[in-house]
Sequence to fold (802 residues):
Amino acid sequence: MELLDPAKQKRVFPDEMYEKLNGFVDDLDIDPADPRKKGNLIQVLRKGQQIFGYLPRELQEYVAVRLGIHHAEVSGVVSFYNFFTTTPKGEFTISVCMGTACYVNGADKILSQFERILGIKSGEVTEDRKFSIDSLRCVGACSLAPVVTINDKVYGRVAPQDVEKIIEDCLVQEEA
Amino acid sequence: MEKIKTYQELTETHDKVKSLLDPRILLDRYQGKKREILVCGDTGCQASDSQKIVTRLNELILANNLEDTVSAKITGCFGFCEKGPIVKVFPDDVFYTQVTPEDADAIVENHIINNRVIQRLLFVHPETNQRIVPEKEIPFYQKQKRVALRNCGLIDPDNIYEYIANDGYMALGKVLNDMQSQDVINEIKAAGLRGRGGGGFPTGLKWEGALKNESDEKFIICNADEGDPGAFMDRSIMEGDPHSVLEAMTIAGYAIQSNKGYIYIRAEYPSCIARLKKAITQGEEIGFLGDNILGSGFDFTIELKYGAGAFICGEETALIHSIEGRRGEPTTKPPFPSDSGLWGKPTCVNNVETYANVCPIINKGADWYAGIGTETSKGTKVFALAGQINNTGLVEVPMGITLQEIVYDIGGGIQDNRRFKAVQTGGPSGGCITRANLETPIDYDSLAAIGSMMGSGGMIVLSEKDCIVNIAKFYLEFTVEESCGKCTPCRVGNKRLLEILEKITQGRGTMEDIETLKTLSEIIKDTSLCGLGQTTPNPVLSTLKYFEDEYITHVRDRKCPAGVCQKLITYEIVAEKCKGCTACSRLCPVGCISGAVKEAHVIDQELCIKCGVCFDKCKFTAIIRN
Fold:
């Protein structure tokens, strides 16, 4: 396929973000002729999501051109794996563990309580982009079930009546 | 870090660093003056601030000028997560439970300086109510045997010398120095080691297949994509003992004549990734990874590859496709990966726990290993105990132990003395074990015979509080979300199963639906492409086999006996019994309970979300569930 010059690609994010991603790809030292170069795709996308927060179509196209593979292949991979998201996340990413141990200890009730209070469904983000809710599969802290993680903080043994307080804590944290 | 270039230098280093672990291994026979405080640094305990405990301990040690006589450090999982964070003091052999960062002051002041054991932090025996000091007297540990978890809770995972001190890399030295590839395989075969990821395929045979295939390139893969929700043994091994995985992979590389290993690890395990990265760097610096390892002429490198959240990638062909940067869809076997795997080359994929068993087999011999376990399943198995059980945590037991022993002797029985209902093993691919089979010795074949499976080792204990139809629905929800969609029986069939289960839990089921569940399940099992689809109906079939009555109650009586299915229950307050204490109305997360103090309360049925908080909290049994 014809290789476009990444510099001529449409850019919708600040330049320094692209520079970061480019630096990462440069370090991988990928040989464009290597039939195994696609093996780098998932880690480039991971890095991309880390830098940009999500993987919108423009960014997928950018990655495709940068690695010299088809956008369809990139899109296929992005849509296959749960870790990748094409919608932006909130400042506070609320993940309710839906592993078995958490589920039998009432995680579904915790999830619906978050959904009820924030007025969004799992997989969505609030209008002000402050909160997004997701469910995740087992962080392995089963003794603390049910578990909720918000960004990197783990809340254990959460009860439905604790949910409001947890959300308030986030807001307080933000102000501080 | 000084390079270790030969087997001779390795044994010298081993002799030199061996005493590092003396306080922890010799205990009361230890003659030295040095004391050590070990704090669990596993994800579960980290979530309960264990890192802060270590930081505080170290501050206090410095402030009191104790750094010559005592040190505090992080170690891997002690297993007893229920009572975490765990702190152990050596050589005193004192086991503290549920420690908080504030308790660090008491540990240094009372225990270390004044030699007084802190009674309030000791484990209390649930029957005798006595406080127990050493780990070995705690019932949770008495029937366990640690092989795969041998270093978890013993060594500092970031310190390669502590790993060497406990015979680390000695197996690699022995293999490279004294054994041929076939010898290694013979040893693993004789030990009877079977794959711990769930399938139970003999590891030695897998390696032999890959060895026999001549190729310019071969690959070793460690499957660390631990996807079974409720199983976390692989994570604990990688966090607590990363070098044991690296060493075993290198041995496997030598056995099949491969020079390149990949660890495929899930993105949800950031602390594992950090530990493994550090361990790989150490291995390269010291010379256990790289070119000409220990002067043997054998080269081996290990690289991390990240998963991106797809349960199917635990299936080996899907995993391989994922490493190749493609969608993680499985392909039919044969060809098996040992014939044509990564990039079409012979490849061995083994699970983390399987690797963790390799070095002890080489060090102690196949006979020793084969002496543990049952006729067809050798060695030990790590289980993650969770659900409605008193002692949640990670346990390692010899194969052949009964479920009764795991649930009651180790697990301490069911929470709140409720009735045992079943244990779910094997995750979304497994099934239930009921009261009738509590005495069945656990191994690969006995579990398969009663309609469950070993799986990766998740054990979810269910009580009368759990609705069996709801559990089946939970696993099907998981499967429907995680099915890769490649083959129709799995993609469409499981979706239909889920819809029927939803109907039943909402009180709209018919008797015909139960029959459809059975036939459809059999069809999905028979016609799906990969191991995922072939096993996903198991939770349905197994619960139907043992608990068909409960399904029928949902259908005929429109009732959920466990009181879980929200559409089938209501909560009401019995006015005569209600004291108006307001406990329920204060806790209700949706504020649907009204009533003045000291007057009977009322639940607004329109608003009630049926979370059951009020039901659990009412001291006067004034709230009833219908």
Notes: The two ends of chain A are 52 Å apart (CA to CA). Chain A touches chain B through 47 residues (CB under 8 Å).
